[in-house]
Amino acid sequence: MTTIAPPPSTKSQVLRSFDVNDFPALKGLEEEWRFTPLKRLGDLVTATTLSGAAPSVEHGELPAGVTVTPAGPLEPVLVPFDRISALAFGSSPGVTLIEVDADTETTEPALLRVEGKGSDAAAARIYVKIGRFAKATIVLEQVGTVTLADNVEVIVGDGAQLTLVTLADWDADAVQAQHVKFRVGTDARVQHVQVTLGGSLVRQFTSVEYAGRGGDAELWGLYFADAGQHLEHRQLVDHGVPDCRSYVGYRGALQGASAKTVWVGDVLIRAEATGTDTYEINRNLILTDGAIAHSVPNLEIETGEVAGAGHASATGRFDDEQLFYLMARGIPEFEARKLVVRGFFAELINKIPVEELRERLGDVIEGRLAEYHS
Predict the structure, then answer these.
(1) Residue pLDDT, tens place only, 256-288
(2) Are 316 and 286 contacting, i.e. CB atoms less than 8 angstroms apart?
(3) Where are the alpha helices (DSSP H) in 272-354?
(4) Radius of gyration of the chain (CA)
(5) Calpha distance 50→175 (Å, rounded)
(6) 298-330 pLDDT, tens per residue?
(7) How many contiguous H segments (helices) and E segments (strands) does the chain have?
(8) CA-based nearest residue to 276, from 300, 242, 301
(9) Which residues contact 363 (CB under 8 A, 6 or more apart)?
(10) What is the pLDDT of residue 1?
């Protein structure tokens, strides 16, 4: 008789492996994949190795103390806990290392452009290492056409501060399954701003672990799904060390037939993580009929000695009362809609410490609104 092992009951029990063959074939019935249209992922679901051309990583002049180089084997920050992440690890032709020297404080952001090289299924690995007591801002802008499995691994050294902005502005036919993993050192602080606009299907999983007391992680997300797009965001904040903090705040807008978004926020507070302070919230604004937003916040708490733990989720249609209020004061309907949507996203856009990028995002959002309300 064959015994089938039950699925893991907690996030701490999930299978972790670097070998793609250790993971069972995906059926779409698994909890982690039930919202994802697996057929649209193509070879990323069925292949055991990927041979397409990896995206290039390009940049101009970098701030002093910041380097970008090809690297040999590096100690993994991420141990994959899903099949596609393991596929990315095993198939990546190399590693791009972005390093900030210890005690460096940059005054300008490091701007990098990750450019897809075609639709053949490919893998990539980026490794970000922030030295002790360094302070830096890094922007990764992802553009072009891809079918991509990629991992971004980030070490934030003790006492360091990192603002990482990732912008997925792929071409309309692009497909991406990405895992971003942060390891946050003692008294270190990381702020991740994840912006997702382009692509046919983009699935981004962000996870956080703490390497010492006093770690602080803020995960912010902004996404705008248009007709036919599937944008999926998942987080796992793993509190395994006492006296650490996390905050997750994601906001999305949807418009057009079959526009679909998924947000799943998981926070695990282990028994030893006393003094944890955590909160997560997701808000979705549905602008037209035919769009669907899924929002699932989860807390798994193994100790009663926490400073705070909570979550919230809200999904609603465009507020006609707000629109009426503005139009009653002489503001044309389209301008009123722009004001409401800009206000909805304003907090997150202001988290981006690059003025040119903030302005560009505002223009993109207004352009998308104009497509349906011109």
Answers:
(1) 989 999 999 999 999 999 999 999 999 999 988
(2) yes
(3) 320-327, 333-349
(4) 20
(5) 14
(6) 999 999 899 999 999 998 887 667 677 677 777
(7) 5, 18
(8) 242
(9) none
(10) 31
